[in-house]
Amino acid sequence: MNSITIGPYSDKAHRAEVVALWEIVFGYEAAHNKPALVIDKKVSFGDALFFVALVGDVVIGTVMAGYDGHRGWIYSVAVSPAHRRQGVGAQLVRFAERVLTSKGCVKVNLQIVEENKGVTAFYGVLGYAVEKRVSMGKRFHENIDTA
């Protein structure tokens, strides 16, 4: 396998490749999950918690993290189909965990679709466990470009 580097996302260098990767990996239909919107919101937040895995200068994976001063979150772990089952996803998650830990984070949360047993198993191997919680959400449509 080629050498993988993980580093900060750059809108100029990585945007087109990340959008394409997310469209393949996630295939989200909902307007609030469209890659361009998610990327724009994350970049404008300016927390420097968005990372890409590269082989050379080609994006093969992503991970976004969030931190509120207590808990961290992991979002948007994506690995190109050609690079799966090679440890790239685990490297991305561990990278995000190290960054969050260095900021003082005491716990990392993530959410996955319940039916996605493969992803549940992936995170289980990395030490994550299903917690008895109810996840609730509310969308603010005025902040979602539906065009």
Write the layout of secondary structure elements.
Layout: E1 4-8, H1 11-25, H2 35-45, E2 50-55, E3 58-67, E4 71-79, H3 88-102, E5 107-109, H4 117-125
Parallel strand pairs: 4-5
Antiparallel strand pairs: 1-2, 2-3, 3-4
Please tell me about this protein's structure.
- The chain is α+β, with helices and mostly antiparallel strands.
- The protein has one domain (4-143): Gcn5-related N-acetyltransferase (GNAT) (Aminopeptidase, 3-Layer(aba) Sandwich).
- It is 34% helix and 22% strand.
- It is built from four helices and five strands, in the order βααβββαβα.
- The chain has helices at 11-25, 35-45, 88-102, 117-125; strands spanning 4-8, 50-55, 58-67, 71-79, 107-109.
- It has a five-stranded mixed beta sheet with strand order 1-2-3-4-5.
- The radius of gyration is 15 Å and the shape is globular.
- The mean pLDDT is 91.
Number of domains: 1
Q: Strand share of the residues?
A: 15-25%
Distance between the termini: 40 Å
Could you give me the name of the CATH homologous superfamily? Gcn5-related N-acetyltransferase (GNAT)
CATH class assignment: Alpha Beta
Radius of gyration: 15 Å
Q: Kindly report the average pLDDT value.
A: 91
